[in-house]
Automatic annotation (TrEMBL):
N-terminal signal peptide: none
Membrane-spanning segments: 460-484
Membrane association type: Single-pass type I membrane protein
A GO cellular component entry from the record: membrane
The name this protein goes by in its record: Ig-like domain-containing protein
Places the protein is found: Membrane
Stretch list, region Disordered: 1-32
Pfam families given in the database record: ig, Ig_2, Ig_3
Length: 525
């Protein structure tokens, strides 16, 4: 009831609008043909917004009488809705009539002095229209304002259609999802991504990503991997009393990633029968399944489908020391073909000479703290390294307590501290890693020991620097004096009298200034 009042106020505009509808109506025109629509007042249901359309008296009177029609502005098809006619200040009416688009649809005979009546309508597709209430008294006919009723078809059968269909697409392309209903009118749509509502608020999923929501359509202009997931939509009509919604089933959007350039590499192994090459082709990005192809000197020699991963291996013939050809990998997807850089299939056996570099590391207090030994090998594609100290092998796997560590595939030996126990002659050896029977190539032994090097202190450096500056000064002064002397000799050659103070008269720009300044500086010290 409170609600009715609120709306009665908000719809005051209806009253003015009703002026145009105010008219005298011939009582004889009233028919009873739509009486079947008249329902019992008890089984009504009130709908969304109750609108009050007030009366405008058709004839003037001492106190303005009023007539109002109260009812919903939207009603579901096949529901029963109540329209209420209320009068005040009218001479006791005997009949209330409900008009739709000017035609009588219901009549209610009422008891004496009753100021209102209710009509219950069963909503059919033809129920949509403008309703008015009419009251006839002995003197005159009164009409209420107009109430527009919309018939809402309840939603059912919601599905999602996609473009492309099925919704599997490459990153960067456009995705369109539509929320389609089998039946329904006056619908609004809501989208869900991974069960979370998609809105334009920043908390909503997908918000920072480009997408548009228009009517029943969700458009992603540029799909990224982030858009992959499950989508569903909900369509329905929100009404004050009964809101009806229908959800679709989920559709799974899959976003395919473009392939990156494949990387090619190979390994070699030896068993009793001989050598085996193994070429690896691998892409870091992409969506399987893809097909890898191996070409040798531009001729395809093998291919393999990678269903789950982005890697394939190919066995190849390999003879150490022989050039087996230029190999390339190519990876194909349904949209792309990408080729790797070429790789020479050639295994160079370990050979030449081995040398060792030592680098000492010092602490802040100039104490020797660590050493790094690097093993250099002339050539060899797959070398294995081994280190020894005073002719005993260093273990490859150093435990936490030991003071050495191997890095760079055994090529680098780091002595984390230098003690009596690990000082001595170090030696590096290398051989083919794929062949345990191959011969070692050895370096010369190098001595690693604690050397007491007294690092020059900052004071020493400062004194040396001062001495250097003094020497420079003295040299400069001597040079300038020599220049001045040669000038004086020249002036003297002309047999002119020698000025008393040479320095004030001889114009020697620049050098003289420096000379004087330097002398001054020198005098101060
Ligand atoms: C090649 O190497 C890969 C990875 O180590 C291995 O899984 C595969 O079995 C090897 N293939 C051949 C033919 O040796
Ligand atoms: C290795 O030999 C050198 C020279 O003979 C010796 O000074 C050093 O202590 C030895 N180191 C070890 C750990 O035995």
């Amino acid at each position: 009831i409170t609600h009715t009042h609120t709306h009665a106020h908000s719809h005051t505009c209806t009253q003015t609008h009703a002026h145009s509808h105010a008219q005298h109506v011939n009582k004889q025109h009233a028919t009873e043909e739509n009486h079947s629509n008249l329902m019992n007042i008890q089984d009504f249901s009130l709908f969304s917004i109750l609108v009050v359309a007030s009366l405008v008296p058709t004839m003037g009177g001492p106190s303005p009488p009023s007539l109002a029609l109260i009812g919903p502005d939207k009603a579901y098809l096949n529901s029963k809705d109540v329209f209420q006619c209320k009068s005040s200040g009218l001479p006791a009416p005997t009949t209330y009539e409900l008009l739709k688009d000017g035609n009588l649809v219901a009549t209610s005979n009422i008891l004496e002095e009753d100021q209102s009546t209710a009509f219950t309508l069963k909503i059919s597709p033809t129920s949509e229209g403008s309703y008015q209430c009419r009251v006839a008294t002995e003197e005159s006919i009164y009409l209420s304002g107009t109430l527009h009723l919309q018939v809402v078809i309840p939603v059912s059968g919601t599905t999602v259609t996609s473009d492309p269909d099925p919704p599997t697409l490459y990153e960067g392309s456009r995705l369109t999802l539509r929320c389609v209903v089998n039946k329904g009118s006056h619908l609004s749509y809501t989208w869900f991504f991974n069960r979370q509502e998609v809105t334009s608020s920043s908390a909503s999923p997908l918000t920072p990503l480009l997408l548009q929501l228009v009517e029943n359509t969700l458009v992603v202009e540029t799909v990224t991997a982030m858009h992959a997931g499950n989508y569903y939509c909900m369509a329905g009509t929100r009404m004050e009393t009964i809101s009806r919604f229908s959800s679709s089933t989920e559709v799974t959007v899959k976003v395919k990633v473009f392939l990156s350039e494949p990387q090619i590499s190979f390994t070699i192994a030896k068993d009793g029968l001989g050598y085996h090459g193994n070429v690896t082709c691998m892409s870091s990005r992409g969506t399987p399944p893809v097909t890898f192809h191996l070409t040798l000197d531009e001729k395809e020699v093998a291919s393999a489908v990678a269903k789950e991963s982005l890697v394939a291996w190919f066995p190849v013939a390999m003879v150490p020391g022989n050039f087996m050809g230029m190999a390339r990998c190519r990876v194909d997807s349904d949209a792309q073909q990408v080729t790797s850089q070429p790789l020479a299939l050639e295994v160079v056996p370990v050979g030449g000479s081995v040398t060792v570099d030592i680098e000492y590391l010092y602490k802040m207090d100039s104490k020797m703290s660590a050493a790094r030994l690097q093993c250099h090998l002339s050539f060899g594609s797959f070398p294995a390294f081994s280190w020894s100290l005073n002719n005993s092998l260093l273990p490859h796997l150093s435990d936490a307590a030991s003071s050495h560590a191997l890095a760079n595939g055994g090529r680098t030996l780091v002595l984390t501290e230098i003690t009596q126990e690990n000082s001595g002659y170090y030696l590096c050896r290398a051989r083919d890693s794929y062949d345990n029977a191959s011969a070692w190539v050895e370096s010369e032994p190098v001595l690693v020991q604690i050397i007491d090097v007294t690092m020059p202190t900052i004071e020493v450096i400062a004194i040396v620097f001062c001495c250097f500056v003094m020497v420079t000064l003295v040299g400069g002064v001597a040079c300038i004096i020599w220049m001045l002397n040669s000038r004086r000799e020249y002036v003297g050659g002309r047999e002119q009298p020698e000025p008393r103070d040479r320095q004030r008269h001889i114009r020697l720009p620049g050098t003289l200034t420096i000379y004087v300044t330097l002398v001054d500086v020198k005098k101060k010290y």
